[in-house]
Specification:
The protein is an alpha/beta fold. Helix content is about 25%, strand content about 25%. The protein has five domains: about 200 residues, no CATH class; about 60 residues, Molybdopterin biosynthesis moea protein, domain 2, CATH 3.90.105.10; about 80 residues, Molybdopterin biosynthesis moea protein, domain 3 (Molybdopterin biosynthesis moeA protein, domain 3), CATH 2.170.190.11; about 140 residues, 3-Layer(aba) Sandwich (Molybdenum Cofactor Biosythetic Enzyme, Chain A), CATH 3.40.980; about 70 residues, MoeA, C-terminal, domain IV (Beta-clip). A hairpin with a 2-residue loop joins strand 33 and strand 34. The two termini are about 55 Å apart. The structure holds adenosine monophosphate and magnesium ion. Magnesium ion (MG) binds next to loops. Its cofactor is Mg(2+).
């Protein structure tokens, strides 16, 4: 049984009215299964929520808000005399004044600080005017008895402290400006607040944090809109999968600090986000390869354009580990789960200090004991005017913004000396200078490579949404074919195309399915194609594609597979046979291995990539001087087996298309234009290295 009927996710904002046009960093709300709603200020958000909760009367509604429902332990008691977090909600509701263009949150924070020993925990005055007791920076502050973070935030990597009231990503203002609204809605609708109260009433308020789901965010122009949609749908999916209850249990024992839904249950959350249940896209239309009437010889570029238009993705989506992504196609926009680097750090081994404390000329700074190392942060702040040993990759300790290279220092046990001036922030790396958390790093359709696995890992993306591997079946036809493991009389031909095409498919990141070899026998061919259609997304056949007597492939496909024989103006290559067998596209490649290879590279590869969800892939060519001479007639585009030599690109001595050895001799193809050409040595010709075909 589901716990709830309706799920709403709200991305809150602590700032002022954001204007009429939907923008990021405003309030966004989304009901699971519906479209996100833009709410330009808190007054509108409160009205929208109230109206929605009224219309949901009689149903059980779970509303998630993305700001802390409590403060670090002890704070509620300090403010209200009561350990109850909800007493603190009432306390804020009684004091916060809020209209669309202004509010008193910084003054309230300053007043709280004033009543605490030392400076007090709140910081980050975002206003022009100074506020008593509210420092602009957090560096020199003391928290008194309160922790910097709640227990749950120590587990939620990248979360912010609720003491910080301004600055990118900060959450402190949202809490102060959110709790009063929630307090009023709670009273009006009798909502139960998780994890402080039992969820035995119609409306529940839970704390959410969309960044927990960052790796699974769908594509949306405005990130916040995508986030609330994702979280609302994830809550619904968890409830449907029976895991929401377990995730809610993780909040037990959190006391007045509160908990974030999903922390401690990340695997359940991820399972709820997994898009594997997305329906597969429909099969291709039966007439997708039909050529318009009157088209006879098709130039290569026309054929490619027609092919591109004819095919579309046929595979579904799955999630895979970032450790196994090479050759996989990204299924939906991937965003960084955290910044790279995540925090300001040192680019060198040296000594760190506050830049303002060191001037020009000889500098001597007292050296603190201890050090900051990569993976071993320095606990505590560095007082202004002191220096600390820092190693490459170390997070800059509080109070340090500049590092001087150790080679430029002389050091004693107690002091470090160097010559100024030193550039502000010298030898440091800014947080997010490479990638900022939430940045889109890969678009859907990108084919992932080894270096991409490195980037995904660096950004904390473990599971990657990719398209299922395209299953490419490879079938050889012809009575004359035998396996190379057999002795063969000379009237037999070893099947060269099948191992070649299977391994091309593998190199392109597809799942290669060996469909074996069938003789020129119509019934055998038909039953093999039937089997193949059940287990493959696309079928590559070779042989039997010309119009000769033995060409059963063409004949069968013509009768039952809506065959379209494309007479493409290219050499080497017979007509390219395109058909659909039970909805599965069939590429009938030439039997001749050289022609089969060239047609696979030029036509089958981009078509398969598009079927696999990747973009259409035109090979990258380079104009290079010819180290050969050749005259060609107009009419057909030609591909010559080629490789780079000392004087330019060389071509294989014989153009004979039976010469398979030329494929191994070559490192690429020279592409000669459709028209006539007379090439002399030194002329620039277009060279397509096999690397341009992903080989
Ligand atoms: P076909 O298209 O069946 O007329 O074949 C054209 C030429 O390619 C003939 O010489 C076939 O023997 C040869 N051929 C067809 N399939 C293969 C294959 N799988 N491996 C090697 N040669 C083949
Ligand atoms: Mg044949």
């Amino acid at each position: 049984m589901n716990l709830f009927d309706t799920y709403i996710a709200v991305d809150w904002s602590g700032g002022n009215d954001r204007g009429a046009t939907p923008k990021a960093d405003a309030i966004w709300a989304c009901v699971a299964g519906e479209e996100p709603v833009y709410l330009r200020n808190r007054q509108l958000a409160e009205d929208w929520l109230a109206t929605r909760l009224e219309t949901e009367a009689g149903k059980r509604v779970c509303v998630g808000f993305d700001f802390p429902f409590g403060y670090p332990a002890g704070f509620a008691k300090h403010l209200t005399g009561d350990e109850d977090a909800l007493a603190l909600w009432d306390w804020f509701e009684a004091r916060i004044e809020d209209v669309p263009k202004s509010n008193n949150r910084f003054d309230v924070a300053g007043a709280i600080n004033a009543n605490l020993p030392d400076i007090g925990p709140f910081w980050g005055n975002g206003l022009k005017r100074d506020i008593d007791h509210l420092p602009r920076k957090g560096l020199s502050r003391t928290n008194g008895d309160f922790a910097e973070r709640r227990a749950v935030e120590k587990l939620a990597k990248g979360s912010f402290s609720c003491w910080q009231l301004s600055g990118a990503g900060s959450v402190g203002s949202q809490v102060m400006m959110g709790l009063p609204v929630l307090t009023r809605l709670r009273r009006r609708f009798g909502a139960a607040v998780w994890p402080f109260e039992a969820l035995d009433r119609a409306v529940a308020f839970v704390e959410i944090w969309p960044s927990l789901l960052a790796k699974s965010f769908p594509t949306d122009k405005i990130k916040d809109a995508g986030q609330v949609r994702a979280v609302a749908n994830a809550m619904a999916a968890m409830d449907a999968q029976g895991t929401l209850e377990h995730a809610l249990k993780k909040g037990e024992g959190a006391g007045a600090e509160g908990w974030i839904l999903g922390v401690g249950a990340e695997d359940l959350l991820e399972a709820a986000m997994r898009p594997t249940d997305l329906p597969k896209p429909p099969k291709l239309r039966d007439d997708c390869f039909a050529l318009p009437a009157g088209v006879d010889w098709t130039p290569v570029d026309d054929a490619l354009a027609r092919l591109e238009a004819a095919v579309s993705r046929v595979v579904g989506v799955e999630q895979v580990s970032h450790t196994r992504v090479v050759g996989r196609v990204v299924a939906e926009v991937i965003t960084a789960r955290r910044s790279n680097p995540p925090a300001p750090n040192s680019a060198v081994d040296g000594y760190g200090f506050a830049h303002g404390a060191a001037g020009e000329g000889d500098q001597v700074l007292p050296l603190l004991s201890g050090r900051a190392a990569a993976g071993g942060a320095y606990e505590g702040a560095v007082p202004y005017g002191s220096a600390i040993r820092v190693l490459t990759g170390a997070i800059l300790p509080d109070g340090v913004d500049t590092v001087v290279l150790e080679e430029d220092c002389s050091v004693t046990a107690t002091h470090v000396a160097f010559r100024g001036p030193v550039r502000p922030r010298a030898n440091t790396r800014k947080a997010g200078e490479d990638v900022v958390a939430g940045d889109q790093v890969f678009d859907a359709g990108h084919v992932l490579r080894a270096q991409d696995a490195g980037l995904l890992a660096a950004l904390g993306v473990d599971r990657v949404p990719v398209f299922e591997r395209l299953r490419v079946g490879v079938l050889s036809t012809g009575d004359e074919l035998v396996e190379p493991s057999q002795d063969a009389p000379s009237d037999r031909t070893y099947d060269a195309n099948r191992p070649m095409l299977l391994q091309l498919a593998q190199a392109w990141g597809f799942e290669a399915v060996d469909l074996g070899h069938v003789p020129d026998d119509r019934a055998a061919l038909k039953s093999r194609l039937d089997e193949a259609a059940a287990g493959c997304d696309v079928i590559l056949t070779s042989g039997g594609a010309s119009a000769g007597d033995e060409d059963h492939v063409s004949a069968l496909l013509r009768e039952q597979g809506n065959l379209q024989a494309w007479r493409i103006a290219l050499k080497p290559g017979r007509p390219l046979a395109l058909a659909l067998w039970q909805g599965v596209p069939v590429f009938g490649l030439p039997g001749n291995p050289v022609a089969a290879f060239v047609c696979a590279l030029i036509f089958a590869r981009p078509a398969c990539l598009k079927l696999a969800g990747a973009g259409w892939a035109a090979p990258q060519g380079f104009m290079v001087p010819a180290a050969f001479e050749k005259r060609k007639k107009p009419g057909r585009r030609e591909y010559l087996r080629a490789r780079m030599g000392p004087d330019g690109v060389e071509v294989f001595a014989s153009e004979g298309s039976g010469r398979i050895s030329g494929l191994s001799w070559s490192d690429g193809l020279v592409e000669l234009p459709d028209g006539a050409a007379e090439i002399v040595r030194g002329d620039l010709v277009r060279y397509l290295p096999y690397g341009s075909f992903g080989l």
